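Protocol step 4 of 5: obtain the predicted structure for the target chain.
Materials: sequence only (see below). No template structures provided, no constraints applied. The aim of this step is simply to have a reference model before the mutagenesis design in step 5. Sequence pasted as it appears in the construct record:
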Amino acid sequence: MCLSLLWRERETRACRQFLFTVDALSVTPSTYAYFQVLIPPVLDLAPRVASYLRIILMEKFPSFFVSLLVVGWASGKKTIDYLPGYDGRLPFELEAGYVEVNELQNANLFYTFVKSERNPAEDPILLWLIGGPGCSGFGKFINGFGPFYAEFNFSDIGSQPVLRLEENSWTKFCSVIFVDSPVGSGFSYSNINGARVLRDTITSKHLDIFTRKWFVDHPEFLSNHFYVGGDSYGGKVAPIMIHDLITGNDAGMQPFINIKGFVVGNPITNDLPYDAGTLVEYSHGMGLISDEMFEETKKSCKGDYVTPRNAKCKECLDKLHRNIDRLDKGHILQAVGEMVCPKIEQYTKSDRYLLGVKGTRHFLEKNPYAGCEVDVQFPAKVWADSGPVREALGVRKEHAHEFHTCDLDLGDSYIIDISSAVPYYQKIMKRRLRALVYSGDYDQMANFRGTLAWIKTLNSSIIDDWEPWFVDNQVAGYKRTYANNLTFATVKGAGHVVSYTKLRENTALVRRWMAGKTI
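Step 4 output (structure tokens):
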């Protein structure tokens, strides 16, 4: 096929040399050095030939595919001084842009970058991955731990939401990259949708490419300590991405990423014994089932709560789920919202989800746009979907569809092709990374007992066990530190996404940990 695409002798020689090298080499630092010489002539070939060789390279050496894409790419960033909804010049440095992660599919990840308001030249950089899969990092920028939160202006019914400064923003002590991943979430886009894009392995590889390209375009930050973070499903993707970054670093890929650690909140692993198999113990500990129900279930199921091995075990588990199914799985103390919108059919599946969940922080009792109870993310969705906001952010015309803070349809089409994040946590923690893992104690979806269970598989001894930590002399949760540089903490009263319900405590926790101080 290669020869059929070529007509010049020079291209034939380059193509043959390329195919021979790809077939013969293994992944080593010396291999990468050879590719540094090999890649430039490949890029000089006819476009369709270069594209074909890129496919071969990605299949044989996915890590080296990153280095091929980094060579000679064009930046798509924009500095932003003003935003609709905020009165005056922004009091911090904001950048937004796109990074191409797959040329053939025209796949581009959108990001917003907020420089630390303290000392950006020396403060750490945090790349944050939101959950879903299918949720937008830009949504976290607006109504998470970013510098703003959006709310409706009730004095001007029908107007666009306004932006308020968030005093508990993490950008006060570190620079943050909020990225819309996977492709198709938020303002990210691609020419091709479906299984070829929406899967764990491709998402992680896209993030690897994104990170190296971003640092090529921001060389002034190469020496800063770099952390990867995520909550919910982002807590699954984070260790996979970090593993790819470390593998590339070891192979000599450039630029070298100065990865120092990670922060994950209520991380989902997709490993059923941890995510689902600890639900019985969690429910018992939180008073959702009786002592008798717990003992009977434990005896019947013999510790396996994922696959019932007998009729009695199934009966016990069915009874458990009848007890807890009417609870909000993301926060067991929070009321479950009802669909009270008069014209609910006019909204997309993703928006119906937001309209049907009662808000938490900055709760809105009335929504002038629909007359519904509103989730905290809905004003951010309305704000981000307006034309002036898109223009200010530099959102490309290729992203013509409606913005969603969480696209549930995208999540439904996402393919889970990595069955568990736990082996990746085990691998990367052997590199002595710093790690902070925290859990809202009222989260049932990724409950803290499951998180502690997979942390136990890291085989690290406990240094300080289950001590309270404080914010303003009040107990904010409980912490445990391990010999392998990992700290685990609960956040008292928080749910699945801690920043939505306990941002102040969440910020204090991360700030102290990043500074190396006692939590």
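Step 4 remarks: The first helix runs from residue 9 to 24. The first strand starts at residue 76 and ends at 80.
Proceed to step 5.
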